Structure formats: C-alpha cells, structure tokens
C-alpha cells in the first residue's frame, strides 16, 4: 500500500481515472507500479514495505504460448509486469508463470466461461 507524497497520480477506477494526491488516503496498486512510484519519489510505502494485495486485484485468465502477444501483454499488465519489445511468447509465459508462483496466495484463477450472477430488477421492488 502506498501514499502519494508529491504530485498527482492518475488512479484507474473502472472506466475512469481519478487523481490521487498527498491529500488522499493510501491505496494499493500492483507491486511493480508501487515500486516505480516510490523509486521516482512520487509515493511512499505506508507500512515501509510493498503491498502484495491490490484493492482492485483481478483474477488471471488461463493463458498459454498459443495466445497472441497482445493477449499475453494484457495479462502481464494486469499483474504489473511489462516486457521489452521483441520478447518471445515463451519468455512472457515463463515470466507470468514465475510471478504467479511467487504470488500464488494473492491471485485467483478466473474461469472465462463462468457466467455472472443473474439479477432480476423486479426482485428489488417490494
């Protein structure tokens, strides 16, 4: 968990971006993004150490070497990972695997075929 100490950070909340400043409460990001902001002097760790559970952490869909590079990059981005241009799909999958092994207590796999819960608006009216 980090707190902004200098400047403004654009924090993504759903489809919008909210500014975070030194006046805002601490918040969590993927570990690599927290580290980047701390190294640049924009933020500081709240408890003196990196967060391992971002508030908006999302599950990781199934992935494999047969996916497109853009799909692997999107999954890596969700985890706070980035790859240099020209990185092979094999190296991307290996890096994602390694990251997930190290952080397996904090990531839940997502079943892409799972349907969201159904909601009947008439049930809310009494």
What's the structural blueprint in terms of helices and strands?
Blueprint: E1 2-4, E2 9-13, E3 16-20, H1 31-39, E4 43-45, H2 69-79, H3 89-102
Antiparallel strand pairs: 1-4, 2-3
Helix pairs in contact: 2-3
Instruction: Please write the string of helix (H) and strand (E) elements.
Output: EEEHEHH
Low-confidence stretches: 52-57
Average pLDDT for all residues: 78
Number of strands: 4
How would you name the oligomeric state of the polypeptide chains in this document? single chain
Tell me the strand percentage band.
5-15%
Largest sheet descriptor: 2 strands, antiparallel
Q: What is the 3D form?
A: flat
CA distance, first residue to last residue: 42 Å
Number of helices: 3
Radius of gyration: 18 Å
- Helix content estimate: 25-40%
